[in-house]
Structures are given as structure tokens and as C-alpha cells.
Specification:
Radius of gyration: 24 Å
Shape: elongated
Low-confidence stretches: 1-8, 259-266
Oligomer: single chain
Amino acid sequence: MNSGDVLANQPTLQTVERALNFLEYVATAAEGQTVQQVAKALGLNITTCYHLLRTLQARGYIERHTDATLRLGPRVGVLFSSYQRGFDVQQTLANVVRGITDQTSETAFLSTLDGKSVILKYLSEGSHPLRVSGLYVGLTGNEHRRASGKAVLAHLDAEARDDLLERSLQGVPGPERTATLQELGPELEVGRRRGWSMDTRESDLGISSMGAAVFDSAGRVYGAVGLVTPTTRMERSRDAYAEIVLSAARESSELLRGRPGADPAL
């Protein structure tokens, strides 16, 4: 069960529910509504509706015209702008990921840290006749094995790293979990120093992946960009691929800081 499932089963605050219903009704109504009309439509006491209106007005989410009809206030624009930026950021980073594919002809990816998971958010398919399949947007789990997961883990503080690993290692037997953690510690340190990590487990299946961490404007790890390729090509081109992936990670971090072209050492 994920955190969304848990939250969905928890009780909610009736006052907040009513305020959101009020706001959504005003937002979706075909024409301007009065408080009386909102109260009737939502089945609320008129006094309750006036309390909700005053609160939403005070916070700038609702405005009242001289003819007593209601409309959304300017604070709604702030929420929308923030919501829209999330799409804009990922679209911008998707362009960087496509750049990895353009340079290598390999399948490239963007994964982001969401709570206690590293989730694959964007895939750019490679053009080699022989390329890796089976990846999909929304892929998560096994962060202790995946290159993107390791790239993120290498830059988390101890508490966040332990929380993510606890989830990633769910269901792994005790002895195997202990051995994994013992091997992972030095590997994460190496990845942190050189700037990129690899999925070495998949090499047994003829697949290798490489990922480098991306950082947000506050210097926190945001996710990772990287590529996935047959192991034979990774062995032949690892150094060149590492340089390309690191460059893409630096560019992505600069974009998140709002400083395109900035010196990545700063």
C-alpha cells in the first residue's frame, strides 16, 4: 500500500471539504453565482456559506462583484502557476534527456525523487537496432539496484536514505538485506565522488544503465538522468557515456536553478 492509499482511507476535515467544494463550484459554474446560489447548489446553510466566503475572500481565493456574483481571486493564479511550473520543468528536462539519446542513440531517462520512491518520469527511446525494452513511465522500486536510485541515494542525508532503502528493500530476506546494505554503502560513496552510478545487477542479463543526480535550486537532489544500453555497448563506450550523462545532469541542475549556462562548479 502506498502513501496515497493510506491517506485516502483517513478522515477529512469537514470545514476544509466545504471550503474546497465552494471554491470548485465557483470555478466550474457556467456563470457568476451568488452566495445564495452556491448554498442551494451545495446544500449548505447560508450562514455557513457566508463564513466560507469571508475566509476565501480574506485569503484571496474568491472575489465578490458589485452585483453580488462571485469569481476566482488572484491567489488561484499563484496555485496554477506553481502547478504549471511542474509540467514546464519536466518538459524542459525532457529536452535534455532527448539530447542524451541524440548523442548516443541509446534509450535515456529522467527519474525524480517523489517521497520515498525514485520514479521514472520520462523515456527517450534509442535508435539502435538492438536496444533495451521493458522500461515504462511510472517504474519505481528496487532503488538500491537501479542506476537512478543509486544516483539519488548517494546524495541523500542519512535519514532520507534509510527511509528510501527501507521501502526499496521491503520483502528482501534479512541476510540478503544485510549483505546488500554492506555492499551498497561503498558503492554509493564511489558514485557520489565520481558523479554517476550504474546498475551492475542487470549486467548479468546483458543490460547496463548509468545515472547521474540532478539537483534543485536549494541544492537538494531532485532525481537523476541517464541511459540504458546493452552491456556490450556500455563496456565499449562507458567513459564517453559517463561524460554525456554528467553533462546532461549538470545542465538539468542549472535549469532547475534558473541559471542556464551557469558554471556547474558554483
